[in-house]
Amino acid sequence: MSDLLELKGVHTHIGAYHILHGVDFAVPAGQVTMLLGRNGAGKTTTLRTIMGLWAASQGSITFDGVPIGGPAAGEAARGRRGTPDIAQLGIAYVPENMGIFADLTVSENMLLAARGARSVAGLDTARLEWIFGLFPALKKFWLYPAGKLSGGQKQMLAIARAIVEPRRLLLIDEPSKGLAPAIVQNLIAALRELKSTATTILLVEQNFAMARALGDSVAVMDDGRVVHRGSMAELAGDEALQQRLLGLSLAVHQ
């Protein structure tokens, strides 16, 4: 299976701080790749660097063979390639804080994410119905201010906005954080459905039961570096490896 996204030797500096130290991993097309690691390992910085929110100071980031970040992309490309341009390639980012607009309705939030519609009435009806099948609460609260949704419903809205139009790659940062187990199971089911549509997903997650349920491949980070790459099934089946890489066992997160 070909790789849709590839990072090679990526370094990222934020001010005086050197956060990423030569990150190397690939995201196979059509799969869910888990990006795991302890708090502060550099996972969120990696996602933000891919999206161009922070610039890679060294190394390369390529999407479907096209350079999108790092000095390897060239001066001209770096001058043009910002987050909007990267999004135009079919990459969507769901940040940890979800980034919804609390004062706008659910429908207005969805409209803002849809490049092909100028009004709510112009949204793709068939795709909306598909999204409502994944997240029924969004249909129920379609005209409610997003700020009045529960935490789980806000997360559903954040993911729904990312897929209001077809995307080739989703970057999702800790979607289960702070959510009840039943809501987490709903998210797992929705992300499995997305995977079945050949959507490629790079997922940062601290809920290891969710990682085990969804992941095909995995990259584990520590101190700004990738220290392990392999299959999620291999990691899930090796408690000694889990303890060494993550400091805990997946067995306690069933």
UniProtKB/TrEMBL annotation:
<dbReference type="Pfam" id="PF00005">
    <property type="entry name" value="ABC_tran"/>
</dbReference>
<dbReference type="GO" id="GO:0015807">
    <property type="term" value="P:L-amino acid transport"/>
</dbReference>
<keyword id="KW-0813">Transport</keyword>
<dbReference type="InterPro" id="IPR052156">
    <property type="entry name" value="BCAA_Transport_ATP-bd_LivF"/>
</dbReference>
<dbReference type="InterPro" id="IPR003593">
    <property type="entry name" value="AAA+_ATPase"/>
</dbReference>
<keyword id="KW-1003">Cell membrane</keyword>
<comment type="similarity">
    <text>Belongs to the ABC transporter superfamily.</text>
</comment>
<dbReference type="InterPro" id="IPR017871">
    <property type="entry name" value="ABC_transporter-like_CS"/>
</dbReference>
<protein>
    <submittedName>
        <fullName>ABC transporter ATP-binding protein</fullName>
    </submittedName>
</protein>
<keyword id="KW-0472">Membrane</keyword>
<keyword id="KW-0547">Nucleotide-binding</keyword>
<dbReference type="GO" id="GO:0016887">
    <property type="term" value="F:ATP hydrolysis activity"/>
</dbReference>
<dbReference type="InterPro" id="IPR027417">
    <property type="entry name" value="P-loop_NTPase"/>
</dbReference>
<dbReference type="GO" id="GO:0015658">
    <property type="term" value="F:branched-chain amino acid transmembrane transporter activity"/>
</dbReference>
<keyword id="KW-0067">ATP-binding</keyword>
<feature type="domain" description="ABC transporter">
    <location>
        <begin position="5"/>
        <end position="248"/>
    </location>
</feature>
<dbReference type="InterPro" id="IPR003439">
    <property type="entry name" value="ABC_transporter-like_ATP-bd"/>
</dbReference>
<dbReference type="GO" id="GO:0005524">
    <property type="term" value="F:ATP binding"/>
</dbReference>
<keyword id="KW-0029">Amino-acid transport</keyword>
